[in-house]
Amino acid sequence: MVGIVVVSHSAKIAEGICELAGQMAAPGQKLVAAGGMTDGSIGTDAFRIQAAIEEANTGDGVLVLVDLGSAVLSAELALEMLSEELKDQVKIADAPILEGAVAATVEASVGQPLAAVLTTAEGARDLRKR
What does pTM read for this prediction? Predict the structure, then answer.
């Protein structure tokens, strides 16, 4: 299964999104929160994101969802720190973090490949609330 990493400036937000998305996932789905700084403050940490990507990796790829612009920069830096082999198996989604994470988790947990999980996450931009 494709692993999912949720990157937020807030550890609580990342953990909450993973908790919600995990309720809809099949058993065994890798869903890892990478929120906040190591001291508990608000921010993003490329080393924490790198570790989350490595933890989420099952060999089928990893999709990373981020909350704000600087989280993208930290995620991109984390990708640069990965091995070449793993780097090629990781994508950062241009998707709303909550809706994208839920949709991607469901798609990943039914065994879809990384490209399909990415497309589903990014398609969450078009979900209407009313």
Answer: 0.96
